[in-house]
Design goal:
Elements (H helix, E strand, L loop, with lengths): L2 H10 L5 H21 L2 H17 L10 H19 L20 H20 L2 H12 L4 H8 L3 H21 L8
């Protein structure tokens, strides 16, 4: 059983601590997903808080037709799209500010990996928002095509086509910078 679903069920039944489990399980991934939509980490964090507040206060009905994570991300995407309609222009936080260099044994290797991640995230910002969303959901969050389709309100076929075009677009952007990402 989906750990989020069981925690949510316990919360609905009166276990106030179960919501803490849900927040700790999904907060980081949800913030990063929302950031891929709104392009501002501060707004993404606020939206994630709004999603968890909605769970806490409104207690929307989870019907179990999809995984709890898929349901939660669909709620979050809806909120993000609503915010984008309300706000015409948003300021961006440079991706460089989101990464710090760790003091591990392989500092040089970690630094190079971080540079690759930064270039990947920069390239994701340069491609169509729908492309970056589908890539993020599929590759960073590990959703399958059916779950991604539910979150993005698309058909499975549309998601497959989006993934194909998104990978080509991302590859093209990376190649412009002289960078080839191994997993594409």
């Amino acid at each position: 059983m989906d750990n989020g679903a069981s925690s949510y069920r316990r919360f609905i039944e009166g276990d106030r601590e179960a919501i803490v489990n849900i927040v700790s399980l999904y907060n980081d991934g949800l913030v990063l997903f929302l950031n891929s939509i709104v392009g501002n980490i501060c707004i993404a964090e606020e939206l994630a808080e709004d999603v968890f507040c909605e769970l806490l206060l409104d207690k929307p009905k989870y019907n179990g037709k999809s995984s709890f994570k898929t349901w939660l991300y669909a709620i979050a995407r809806y909120k993000a799209m609503h915010i984008l309609k309300q706000r015409k222009k948003m300021t961006d936080v440079p991706v460089d500010e989101l990464y710090t260099l760790s003091d591990e044994e392989n500092i040089e290797q970690n630094y190079l990996k971080n540079l690759q991640k930064i270039e990947l995230h920069k390239a994701l910002k340069r491609i169509a928002p729908e492309y970056s969303q589908v890539l993020y959901l599929t590759y960073f969050e590990g959703f399958n095509n059916t779950e991604t389709a539910k979150i993005m309100n698309k058909s499975n076929r549309q998601v497959e086509n989006l993934l194909y075009r998104a990978k080509n677009s991302l590859r093209s952007e990376l190649e412009k910078e002289g960078f080839v990402y191994e997993e594409l």
